[in-house]
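COMPLEX REQUEST
Ligand: N-carbamoyl-L-aspartate
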Amino acid sequence: MRHLMSPLDMTVEELDKLMTLADDIRLHPDKYAHVCDGRILATCFYEPSTRTRLSFESAMMHLGGKVLGFASADSSSAAKGESVSDTIRMISCYADICAMRHPKEGAPMVAASKSRIPVINAGDGGHQHPTQTLTDLLTIRSLKGRLGDMTIGLCGDLKFGRTVHSLINALIRYPNVKFVFISPQELRIPDYIREDVLKKNNIEFKEVVRLEEVMPELDLLYMTRVQRERFFNEEDYVRLKDFYVLDKVKMELAKQDMLVLHPLPRVNEISIEVDEDPRAKYFEQVQFGVYIRMALIITLLELEVA
Ligand code: NCD
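STATUS: Structure written out below.
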């Protein structure tokens, strides 16, 4: 049985196959409308979510399956002190596959070790968010036509942003990818990413504070929100939250074919005037998230498509 904890759980070839399946789902949705008839997805969310939970639910429903679950720790037995290991043992009796989000790093991994059904990490603390990364990869591949040969700017909270950590891990496997990390000093990428992921693999990168200075060299700009819930004190958050605001003026410095992505939710880091810019692709990105999750459910359940 397979789980998905990190984007690296899949080889580049497997990811390619998954994205090709997602493309086919996008082009021929009818072919997939009953693939999950009689199957149940459990969404176990111990931390708030809109897109990830609903896109999993939408994905399962588009495949003909059903969904059950909980949307916060308060509304589950976690509030009574039940462990993740016990919860997943029960969920294994109720559902065929589970998507789990948890504020603690590694919690979905603990669940997977006790589970009789495939577990998908839907975000664990500041660690990983593999299905957002699958969404990002599919978006980039679909809109740029490739995953290598580009300079990618990641901007905002690079310290706590789990989407950033997963995306870097996944992208270093493609040829000629260069990174530009744009963040305030306090929110730089964690040391383990700099040392064990980037330097160890000889990946070209630089770290800067000012977005304007690097805008012209980027093929892709991945904006992120400052992760308020992972800060130790509110003053630091308030000081850093509006450090970057992408607006029309900054967009003028960018290449004509640069894409702007964002895992969402956006707070203030992208001004709404940018939404009209044809290079702003963050709402399209959400749609790709449904197709890739459909492909993932089919793959982990090892279902045959007629
Ligand atoms: C992200 C997350 O939960 O890490 N949201 C999402 O799943 N699209 C990003 C964020 O919350 O900032």
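REMARKS: The chain is about 40% helix and 15% strand. Strands lie at 40-45, 66-70, 97-102, 119-124, 150-155, 177-182, 205-208, 220-223, 259-261.
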